[in-house]
Backbone:
DNA sequence: CAGCATCCCAAACGATACTG
DNA sequence: CAGTATCGTTTGGGATGCTG
């Protein structure tokens, strides 16, 4: 698919496979899920309860994509009813710290962002008069 | 909006303002744009040409959001026709390195991801028979 | 418990035309 | 050049019901 397989990956090119990867890891649910899996393994419904606003359908899709991309490991235990545990793969571990930085940045700089938004909105409504 | 303003921010809660911030910075276009602005200031149409697959409409929306969030600075020069330059704000600088790690991760681990995808797909088609 | 299948709606996006 | 405005389509996602 990459028109220049011999060249270095370039996510600014539409066909580059790194673009597909970036599309997925630069995703809010992926970031939040990895933030939890970084702590310990989680079960499906535990993740669902923990992440407010995430629907069962989207969690299912996201976990499946992450499993396909090799970021998470899925293990089903033959209990009744079945128990499924999600954990980070070795590959996922290499990414987890990086995405967690985004969560930490949000927490650290939230006040500055909200202040910037209010200043921007005030400028706009003032300019519009 | 945050039901517990006295508590630490918690992006896993739907109402937490950090969630809104995370929604925006964990976005593929934002990551790619910041990756470029990190190098030097860019003009609107230069960004548009550089980022393959990004439409004018979405670039416009994304830059406006980033400006409102205080991540980028927009400066218009009174030339004819007008010249507009986008650059990182001080706040944006604090984030730029972190998001760039995601781009670098994509480039570094793209082979492992594609291999994982192929292995997954092979398992699936095999299991389906 | 851990999902999948279906229906349905709202938001996102591309394409196009137009403007200071 | 650097956008805005509108429109039609596509996609994502919620809600619900069902299954191993």
Residues:
């Amino acid at each position: 698919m990459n028109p220049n397989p011999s060249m270095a990956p370039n996510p600014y090119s539409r066909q580059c496979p790194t673009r597909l990867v970036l599309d997925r890891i630069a995703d809010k649910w992926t970031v939040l899920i990895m933030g939890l899996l970084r702590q310990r393994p989680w079960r499906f419904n535990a993740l669902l309860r923990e992440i407010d606003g995430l629907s069962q359908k989207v969690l299912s899709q996201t976990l499946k994509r992450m499993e396909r991309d090799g970021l998470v490991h899925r293990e089903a235990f033959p209990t009744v009813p079945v128990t499924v545990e999600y954990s980070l793969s070795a590959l996922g571990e290499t990414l987890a710290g990086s995405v967690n930085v985004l969560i930490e940045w949000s927490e650290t700089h939230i006040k500055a962002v909200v202040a910037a938004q209010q200043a921007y909105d005030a400028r706009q409504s003032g300019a519009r008069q």
About this structure: Chain A has one domain: 18-128. Chain A is about 60% helix and 10% strand. The two ends of chain A are 52 Å apart (CA to CA). Residues 90-128 of chain A form the longest helix (39 residues).
